[in-house]
Each structure stands twice: as structure tokens, then as C-alpha cells.
Amino acid sequence: MRSFEDDPTLSELLPGDRQQQLLQLLQVLSGRPLVLSETPLTGAQAIEFNLETLGWLHCPEQPRVQQAAARLLEFVLFYVGKYRLAANLHHDSTEASFAELQRKHAALQESEARYKALAEQLQARVQEQVQVIEKTQQQLYETARLRAIGQLAAGVAHEINNPIGFIASNLRVAGDYLGELEQKLPADQGTAFLLEDFRALLSESASGTRRIETIVNDLKTFSNIDQADFVPCDLNGLLATTCHLLQTEGQALDIQLRPGTLPRLSGYPAKLSQAFYNVLDNSAKSLGEQGCILVSTRQLEDGTPEVVIEDNGCGISETDLPRVFDPFFTTRPVGSGTGLGLTVARDILIAHRGEVLLNSRQGVGTCVRLRFPRR
Amino acid sequence: MADYLPHERKLTLKVVYYGPALSGKTTNLMQLHTLLRPQRKGELMVLETRDDRTLFFDVLPIGLRGEHGLDLRLKLYTVPGQVQHDSTRKAVLSRADGVIFVADSQPPQQDNNANAFDNLADNLQKLGMDIEQLPIVVQFNKRDVPGAVDEAELQRRWRQTPWAPLCMAAAINGEGVVESFRLLLKRLYPVLDREFHLAADEGISEDDFVRRLSALDADHA
Ligand SMILES: Nc1nc2c(ncn2[C@@H]2O[C@H](COP(=O)(O)OP(=O)(O)O)[C@@H](O)[C@H]2O)c(=O)[nH]1
Ligand SMILES: [Mg+2]
Predict the structure, then answer these.
(1) What are the pLDDT digits (tens) for A272-305?
(2) What are the tens digits of pLDDT across the range A115-143?
(3) Distance linking the first and last C-alpha atoms of chain B
(4) Atom of ligand 1 nearest to the CA of B173
(5) Percent of chain A with pLDDT over 70
(6) For B64, which residue in chain A has the nearest alpha carbon?
(7) Cα A49–chain centre separation
(8) Adjacent-strand bridge partners of B61
(9) Nearest of B176, B221, B187, B42 to residue B210 by alpha carbon
(10) C-alpha span between A241 and A255 (Å, rounded)
């Protein structure tokens, strides 16, 4: 690249037609023929610009005219050159500034991209942290809830166990006394009728007492009063008591239990019961008229233990499906549930290194598969 | 850097007068134009100024012919000192073979001197030139102004730099101008001699170089 300060040639300073114009004017002024050449001519006068010889001016046999014309030409070239130098410098420095500007622009864009990436990273980190916090919160909630239920269940079981014990034994003794009374009373029809009714009352009460005893036992299993941490668990047994608990809790439920053979599984029985309970409770709440729940267990071909809880309830809409595991997500009216049911169930399964799979179609039903790790 | 055209036997060098605005760079050049009688001397080209300020640059070409036909030319440039003309300054500075930094001796100008010197270092770096390798002369001009910063103090401050000793000048009176220029020629010669073998191939010794480029009227007499 030519730099602004490179020495110019004659035609760079003054194009050919301009040279001729100038020469013509000089000829008119001097009345003599003049020749301007970029190559040396004998007897000619050198035309200089900044120490550089740009050309030769010749006026045959007229040294004074030649001399004056040459100086005049140099004078013109000096100012043309001055302008040319300034213009070239301006051009050079403008180009350099523009290149610099482009460099800065590129650098700016690069740093902008860097900041954007950083912002995205930060956003991702925040999201991660939020997830950690949500998870911890939910675990805390779950632990607190389990502990509260456990304590409540333990308290209730303890308080009810005693009275129910003596009620049961009293009822037995009362039955015995009734036999003795029968011997001593007149054998008329009215008396026989009374005694029969009495006996029926007693046996009804006794069966009620047994039901209460079962509930207390279920509560004990559910709250895991007697067990600590991971122990070998019988999933079928836990399922049976959980179903039982649910059935005695509220409305009449049609639950069919079809247990398959399962190996004993190392786990935390209270939590497993809680997981089953939550899934079953969801199913129960989705049921309409003629609704039923089918609970089955099996071992898959690769040995994975699986609990399947199916219902023919209202199902879950496609839009809600992706969110059913979100904490606090619920489609039921406020107050009827915590919205934690499935989340807690899934987390319990994850704690047991298992997983929860959910299939559902609106208006058809829901199928939840709880899979446990193979041994 | 020096521009050598072998087929023309032409070596063109560039010396730049750098410094803050109004420190006397143009005055230095005008004085050289008046005082010097180098072997060859062109016209001083002062690019139009506005309010007495250099807009683009000034240039004075001088030259000598070596024993063996070397056509050596030295173009002396000044740069515009004002801050806003940095791109012009950089364009003029590019490929310089030497720099004469003209500082202003008046006490209130010391910050401007420092900024201009930083700007010189900055621009040299941007142009890929090594300030340590470049022949540089630092001139403190306007010594005639009453209250000029004390010379001993200035020399002490610059003692540890590669540019000591400083040149003192009153360019307006033509004092110190030629001395500064000669000091630069002396610092420039070894660099050129190393690359172009001026002594060995061209028959130009340091003394020839300095004398023939900075001869005064008096020297011819
Ligand atoms: N007193 C004094 N004034 C000076 C001297 N040299 C230059 N000046 C003045 O300082 C002003 C700026 O000088 P000029 O050469 O245009 O400065 P430049 O901007 O560096 O080119 C002019 O008015 C000069 O007359 C000096 O040695 N002494
Ligand atoms: Mg100036």
C-alpha cells in the first residue's frame, strides 16, 4: 500500500490534460514553445518537488524563459502537492480510525456475547439453586408431616390400645356372664328373646372392637412405630394394610388386591406405606360411580419388583400431565389436598432407588407403576 | 522505518517532531529551514493552520548525496499536538526513524508534556514500534520564558530514562534547535549504519552524516 508520504509522480500531481493546459498558458505568456517531459531532455530544466525530480521543462534557446516557466510550474506543483499530501493523510488516518472502530466493535460484540453467556449461566445456576431449595423444602415438609402423623398415630394407638383391650376382655366376660344368667332365668319366650338380642349386641360390639384393633395395628405399621430405618419389607403386606387403612377411612372403596410373588425389599416401611397411601388416595379421589382400583404386584422379566395401581377414575388431562409431580400442584379444590401426594411418592421411590411411571387418559383412568431396584 | 529503493539508490528517512499543542514544533521546523544549509534542502511545507494551529502536519525535506551515489533524504515532520487529532498524529508517526519530543518548559504545561509523552508511547506501541529502540531526543523548549521549570530539576527527573540528557531550547530565538537536531542525527546514525552500512558501503561516516545534514550558513563561510 502506498503511504500518504510516498513521493508522487508528475502525472499523479497533475493529470496529462492539466499539464497541457498549464503549458499552453505558459506558451501564451512567454510567446515561446515549451515541452514538458517525465524523462530527461538535453538542455532542459529539472522540475523538483520535495527534492524529487518530477520532470523536465524545455524551451529551446531561451534559458531565462525556461528557468522562469520551471519555477512557476514548481510553484503550482507545491500547492497541488500540499493539498494532495493533506488529502492522502486524511484518507490514511480515516481508514486507520475506521479499522480501529471495527476492531473495537468486534471486541464489543465479543464481550457482549460473553456477558450474555454469563447471564445465561447465572440464570441456570439460579434455577438449579431454586430447585435445590424447593426439594429441600419439600423434604422438610414431608419429614415433618411423616413425623407428625407418626406421633399422632403412635399417640392414638397407645391411648386406644388400653381401653380397647379391656373393652374386648369385658365383652368376653360379659358373654360368659350371659350364659350363667340364662341358667338362672325362667325359660319363657320373652326372656329367651331378650337374651338372644343381648348376645347379638355383645357379638356386634366384639366385632367392632376387633375392627378398632385392626385399625390401631394399621396405624402402627403406617407410622412405623416399632421399626427404625431400612429393614426387609414385605411390599404386599404394606399394600394390604395401606388399602385397609384407606377403606376404613372414608367412603366405601372398591379396591381389588392381586398380590404376586415379590422378594423382600430393603426399605423404610413407614415411607413406603406413605407412598402407596398417596397414590391410592389420589386414585380414590378420582373415582366416580362404579369406580374401582386394582392393585397388583409382580416381578418384571429382568427381576424388577413392580407395584401397579390402576383406576378407572377421571384421569388427568394432557395439559396437567407434565405437572403432576410438581410440588403443590393439584387439580382438586383448595383444602382437599396438599398437592404433595405424587411428589412425595416419587421422592420416596427415589430414596429407595426406584421410580414412578404415570400413564393417564382423561375420562379413562390412571395407571401408576412403582418400580423398585432389583436385588 | 527507513524506506530504501535499491534501483533508485534512494533512502528516505523520517524524523517526527512530537509533543503537546503549542510547544513549538512548527517553530523548530521553521528555524531549521532558516538556519540549515544542508547539501540539499526542499521547501518547508506548512499545512494550512487555523488559529495558528497545525491541522495536519508540517514537512521539511532535506538530503545528501553519498560518495557512491546514495540519494539520502530526511523528511522532517511535525504532528498536530491537540488531543483530538490523535489519528493524524498516529499516521504521521508511523514508520518514523526518529522522534524529537518538544516539551514546553512553562510550569503549567507539565501535565500536557506528560500526557503527550504517554500518548507518544501509546501510539508507538499501537504502531508496533519499540520506544526503547527508537532514537528519541527530548527537548524542553521556551527556556526564554520567565519562570521556566529549572533545568537542573528537569535533567535530574529524566536522568534515569534512556533519553537523558535533555536538550534545552528557545526555538523562537533559534536557540537549541540545531543542537537538538544534531543530537538526534547522532542517535540515528548507528541504527542506520547497522542496516545500510553507511560507512562501509556508502562512504558516509557519522561525522559526514551529521555535518552534511545540519550544516549552517556559518559552516560554509
Ligand atoms: N516564548 C517562546 N515562545 C515560543 C517558543 N517556541 C514557540 N513559541 C511560541 O509558541 C506558539 C506555538 O508555537 P508552534 O511552533 O506553532 O507550536 P506547535 O503547536 O508545537 O507547532 C507560537 O506562538 C510560538 O511563537 C519559544 O522558544 N519561546
Ligand atoms: Mg504546529
Answers:
(1) 888 898 899 888 888 888 889 999 999 999 999 9
(2) 999 999 999 999 999 999 988 887 777 66
(3) 35
(4) 27
(5) 89
(6) A51
(7) 76
(8) B75
(9) B187
(10) 12
Q: Which ligand is nearest to the CA of B20?
A: 1
Chain B residues in contact with A100 by the CB 8 A cut-off are: 87
Q: Residue B170 carries which side chain, given as an amino acid letter?
A: A
CA-proximal residue: ligand 1, atom 24 (nearest): B24
Which ligand is closest in space to the CA of residue B29?
1
A81, A84, A46: which is closest to B44 by C-alpha?
A: A81
Interface test with A, best of B1, B84, B94, B97 (most A CBs within 10 A): B94
Closest CA–CA distance from residue A63 to any residue of chain B (Å): 23
pLDDT in tens, A147-165: 676 677 777 777 888 888 8
Q: How far lies A33's CA from each of A30, A36, A39, A48, A68, in Å?
A: 8, 10, 18, 21, 14
Ligand closest in space to the Cα of B148: 1
Going along chain B from its start, the domains and CATH numbers come out as 3-220 (3.40.50.300)
Residues counted in chain B: 221
Q: Which residue has the cell 524529487?
A: A52
| Residue boundaries of the structural domains of chain A | 10-104, 229-375
Query: A307, A358 in Cβ contact below 8 A?
Result: no
Residues of chain A that touch chain B, judged by Cβ-Cβ distance less than 8 Å:
3-5, 7, 48, 50-51, 78, 81-82, 85-86, 89-90, 92-94, 96-97, 100
Q: Is B142 in the pocket of ligand 1 (CB under 6 A)?
A: yes
Residue A231: exposed, middle, or buried by beta-carbon count in 10 A (0-12, 13-18, 19+)? middle
Helix pair B86-93, A63-184: axis angle to 10 deg: 120
Q: Is B89 in the pocket of ligand 1 (CB under 6 A)?
A: no
B30 Cα nearest atom in ligand 1: 15
Asked if B183 and B164 touch (Cβ cutoff 8 Å), the reply is no
Give strand ranges (E) for chain B: 3-5, 10-18, 40-41, 45-46, 49-50, 53-54, 58-65, 71-78, 98-104, 136-141, 167-168
**Residue nearest ligand 1's atom 9 by CA:** B24
Does ligand 1 come within 6 angstroms of the Cβ of B63? no
CB spacing of A51 vs B40 below 8 angstroms: yes
Judge whether B81 and B19 are in contact, CB under 8 Å.
yes
Bridge partners of residue A296, in order along the sequence? A258, A308
A229-375: CATH number: 3.30.565.10
